[in-house]
Amino acid sequence: IADGTVEIRGIAREAGYRTKIAVWSAHEKVDPVGACVGMRGSRVKNIVRELNNEKVDIIRWSSDPKEYILEALKPAKVKNLVFDTEKKNVQISVDEDQLSLAIGKKGQNARLTSRLTGWEINIGKDTSATSVVEQKVAQAAQTLAATLPVTEEQALALVKSGFTNLEGLRDADVQDLVDILAVDETKAREMYDAVHRQEVVH
Prior knowledge:
By secondary structure, the chain is of the alpha/beta class. Helix content is 48%, strand content 20%.
């Protein structure tokens, strides 16, 4: 740093708790993070001791906001980033098991990342997988409701009980249908017969 080989491009700090430092080098053969951390962390450990064991994160600076933010949030693993360049904020999605790591204790990691990068950071749980499952459940329920003498609510109850299609329903007996649909035996028998008529048709 003293001779300019490595430059400090940004610092964000909450004194006594945690500091994030972004470093960069114009020399391709120089690893700016490794140069600051030292062999087995020897250089940064000396600084940490002087700061009464304050946590120090040294990251690689980048002119690309996406790369910079991803570096700043490590070791948390990010699933998706959506940038709003006008408002200069970014919505970040992570898996549930990464959420507390990305946000940090009392929001510290997200807050320092925001200060360091200059972007407002909003971190939330990734719901894309959940949305896909919900769509598949809804589609299966609609198909059953269109094929059998049941309401969409009843079809949804069947799907949530594991009967996602006609083939699966052929394994259900009348009592299963009574329990799942909360109907009397006559209605359940009507449903049972309809399922097996479909089997004959197909």
